[in-house]
Amino acid sequence: MSAASCLLTEDQFLCSICLDVFTDPVSTPCGHNFCKACISQHWDRNVPSQCPNCKEVFNIKPELRVNTFISEMAAQFRQSAQQKATSSSSSEQHIVKPGEVPCDACTGTRLKALKSCLVYLESYCETHLEPHLTRAGLKKHQLINPEENLEGRMCVKHDKLLELFCKTDQVCVCMLCSVSEHKTHDVVPLKEGYEGKKAELGKTEAEIQQMIQKRRLKIQEMNRSVELSKEGADREIADGVQVFTALKESVERSQAELIDTIKEKQRETEEQAEGFIKELEQEVSELKKRSSEVEQLSRSEDQLHLLQSFTSLNAAPPTKNWTEVRVRPPSYEGTVGRAVTQLGETLSKQMKKLLEVELKRVQQSEVEVTLDPDTALPYLILSDDGKQVKHDDVRKNLPDNPERFKTCPNVLAKQSFSSGIFYCEVQVKGKTKWDLGVVRESINRKGKISLSPQDGYWTIVLRNGNEYQACAVPPVRLSLKSQPQKVGVFVDYEEGLVSFYDVDAAALIYSFTGCCFKEKLYPFFSPCDNDGGKNSAPLIISPVNHTE
Prior knowledge:
Elements: H1 2-6, E1 25-27, E2 33-35, H2 36-45, E3 49-50, E4 57-58, H3 68-87, E5 115-117, E6 122-124, H4 126-134, H5 136-139, E7 143-144, E8 164-166, E9 171-173, H6 175-178, E10 187-189, H7 190-244, H8 249-298, H9 303-314, H10 335-341, H11 348-363, E11 380-382, E12 388-391, E13 411-412, E14 421-427, E15 434-440, E16 457-463, E17 467-470, E18 476-478, E19 486-492, E20 497-502, E21 507-512, E22 521-526, E23 539-542
Antiparallel strand pairs: 1-2, 3-4, 5-6, 5-7, 8-9, 8-10, 11-12, 12-23, 13-22, 14-19, 14-23, 15-16, 15-22, 16-17, 17-18, 19-20, 20-21
């Protein structure tokens, strides 16, 4: 017997199910041999019963008896193989360590598994993996990297292999599921579902990378905004120092206050930018982490693991919409001018130079402004280009739409502003009365109108040819050295600032500060009544002359 066994190969003593030497070998009617326990468990899980090797179907489960001849041969071969294994290089294989997947076919010292079989739901070391790499029937089995929880690949309801994917319910199912509760659903092979989700993961990864890039660009944009803000602050500090360094103690105190104010604004700008950048960097970090997870999952050959992990990783992590977020450099217009004005006549020359620079700066914020005929009182005449308005004694027959002023000779611009800074210039030459400024969208346009910030109006007015007034609460009478021929209107929405300038004199007329804007703002114009022809000159929206 011993001599005969030496003529037989190892494959002839291996059960094709457990891939180990036969234990209680039995023969099926088709002539193939298996461990009794292996073939019994196989038939318990699969209906109808069939041979794992040749796939012959047995409508009635065969009665199995141990083949004593093969059993004796297998026992001798096992003893011989163990003796060889003791002295062979197989001892060099890796013994399984904590956290590693052990070989299910090892009977003594368990070795580290190299692959798991999705057909037999077992993991094999190098030795026991050999049949799957050499035998034609086993080569068709799908192998994956070692997986410890192979039972998770079985349907808990039918104890069948999860080999299909229900696209309707987005779950993995077995063959019996597909003809029962998922009968009317869109069910595809596991591979097809795997490839579809893998493609989606690739798209998700690309989208995450795009989000990362957008946030990096936003960081660059914010850093640039901080640089511009600092440059503006440095310019303001330099202008302020030039004005105040020649003065005595009182001037030095004013200088210190001015610098502190500018630096505080700059500090707030930097803190705001730093906060935004920190948020962006955090989002980039989270997106990188998600990208790494998605990339790792997309390279997975484990179909079930990918499908089960897809839902949690496919969606990008919640992030903030940064499209409208900006770091806006603070407005310094009027800061130095207002400080210098308090010092009196001794600073008049410096004030003049400073205001000229300031006006040129705010003029860079010029916007296109045209008059809106749908808001004009029917007694007003607007030019075809929407740049001029004057009062007429003849009332035009116009619809009384909600936007139109009903009793006062007012008109608004077509353009509105809800952020940022803007500037326009209006010629008031030849007029004895006019109103100019900005208003919020919700102002009263039909009844009695009060030109005050509480009612949504930030305006200055001219009355009786030489009486100027800022319509604050209480009203502020303005003493001007000269009558403005052209008035500049500047607004910094975030800063809550509305300033008026005498363009020709390069002088600040008045500023509303600390305003709280929450609605759209519209440029506001009133040529007032023509006063029997004495006030017939139009208000004219003029382009800024940047060459002066």
